[in-house]
Design a protein that fits this description.
Blueprint (H helix, E strand, L loop, with lengths): L1 H10 L3 E7 L6 H9 L6 E7 L6 H6 L4 E5 L5 H11 L4 E6 L3 E2 L3 H11 L5 E10 L18 E3 L6 E3 L1 H6 L10 H11 L4 E13 L4 H4 L3 H23 L1
Parallel strand pairs: 1-2, 1-4, 2-3, 6-9
Antiparallel strand pairs: 4-8, 5-9, 6-7, 6-8
Helix pairs in contact: 7-9
């Protein structure tokens, strides 16, 4: 029976789970444990550490299922890209060190992609939680704490790896909003996607969320919009 179960797991596509972290000793173990609790069993966990100076490395290496990678460059986009380069899975998923997945996250999205080969990536709904002892960051909309919403963000994404070769990986020029840029490029290239109609991500909000506190976030969003407009203009010119 155990041999049959192992064969079934080996026949499933490998999912590379990339967790990027910097000085995340407070939350990292919780994030890794939410991956280990997945009902989908054929995955690898790659922790890309942005040269942490706390106990992040020790915590990551305490899990034998984790492949620890020390980031050689800088920034979140670069960390994602280093994880993608190190991955060996057919599908790639991402998780921030301070967030958690529901146990059916990978099984729901991977099974959907297997059943719909024309779909290149899926995202899902997200439920926001305010960490105990933290106040709502200035850049966060408090109404998001009630109910759930569709999250086109890295932590809900499960994607076929070849798509990164087709439209590019994350752009390191963006300190924040690197995911917005990637999803925008996917949309501008008419990449087929699907939204899973259930909450698969629990996103934890706290005072140190980089994307909610960065003063350059709005500048990056404007730049992304301009680049998108330019791409669409060039596409129309090529069609003429």
């Amino acid at each position: 029976m155990r041999i049959a179960e192992n064969n079934m797991i080996e026949n499933l596509p490998i999912v590379s789970v990339i967790i990027v972290v910097k000085n995340g000793e407070r939350y990292l173990a919780r994030a890794i444990e939410s991956v280990l609790a997945q009902t989908y069993e054929n995955y690898e966990i790659i922790v890309v550490d942005g040269q942490s100076i706390d106990n992040t490395e020790k915590i990551a290496k305490s899990f034998q299922q984790v492949r620890y990678v020390r980031q050689t460059g800088e920034g979140i986009a670069d960390a994602y890209n280093q994880g993608i380069d190190a991955s060996r899975g057919e599908f790639i998923a991402f998780l921030s060190h301070d967030d958690t997945w529901t146990t059916n996250k990978l099984s729901s999205q991977v099974n959907y992609l297997i059943q719909h080969p024309e779909i290149q990536y899926t995202v899902a709904k997200v439920k926001f939680f305010l960490e105990e002892g933290h106040s709502i960051p200035p850049g966060f909309r408090p109404e998001l704490l009630s109910g759930d919403s569709v999250g086109c963000i890295m932590e809900t994404l499960v994607v076929r790896k070849p798509l990164f070769a087709a439209i590019g990986k994350l752009n390191p020029e963006f300190i924040v909003a690197e995911d917005v840029d990637w999803f925008c490029r996917a949309k501008d290239n008419n990449v087929t996607m699907a939204v899973m109609p259930e909450v698969l991500l629990h996103k934890h909000i706290h005072n140190t969320n980089l994307s909610l506190n960065s003063s350059v976030n709005n500048q990056n969003l404007l730049k992304i919009m301009r680049q998108s407009i330019e791409r669409k203009r060039n596409q129309k010119l090529e069609q003429k």
